[in-house]
Amino acid sequence: MNIANHTDVGPVVRIENLNKWYGQTHVLRDISLSVAPGEKLVICGPSGSGKSTLIRCINQLEQHQQGTIEVLGQALDGKRLEQLRRQVGMCFQSFNLFPHLTVLKNCTLPQTANLGVPVAEAIERALQLLDKVKMRDHANKYPSQLSGGQQQRIAIARALCMQPRIMLFDEPTSALDPEMIAEVLEVMTGLAEDGMTMICVTHEMGFARKVADRVVFMDGGEIIEQAPPSEFFHSPQSPRTQRFLNQILNHGAQPA
Amino acid sequence: MNELTHIAPARLPPQATFAVRTSRWVRQSMFPSVGHSLLTLVVLALLAWCIPKALNWLVLDATFVGSTRDACNPHAACWLPVIERWNLFVYGFYPEAQRWRVNLAFLLAVGAFVLLFFKRLDRRALLAYLVMLPLLMWWLLKGGAGLPGVSSTQFAGMTVTVMLGTIGMIFALPLGILLALGRRSKKPVIRLLCVLYIELVRSVPVISLLFMASLMIQLFLPPGVAFDILLRVQVVLILFTAAYMAETVRGGLQSLPKGQYEAAQALGFGYWKTMGHIILPQVLRQTIPPLLTQFIGLFKETTLVMVVGVLDIVGIASSTAASAEWAGHDHEIYIFLALYFFIICFALSRYARHLENHLEHDRS
Ligand SMILES: Nc1ncnc2c1ncn2[C@@H]1O[C@H](COP(=O)(O)OP(=O)(O)OP(=O)(O)O)[C@@H](O)[C@H]1O
Ligand SMILES: [Mg+2]
Question: Best label site of B70, B76, B88, B209, fewest CB within 10 Å?
Answer without folding.
Answer: B70
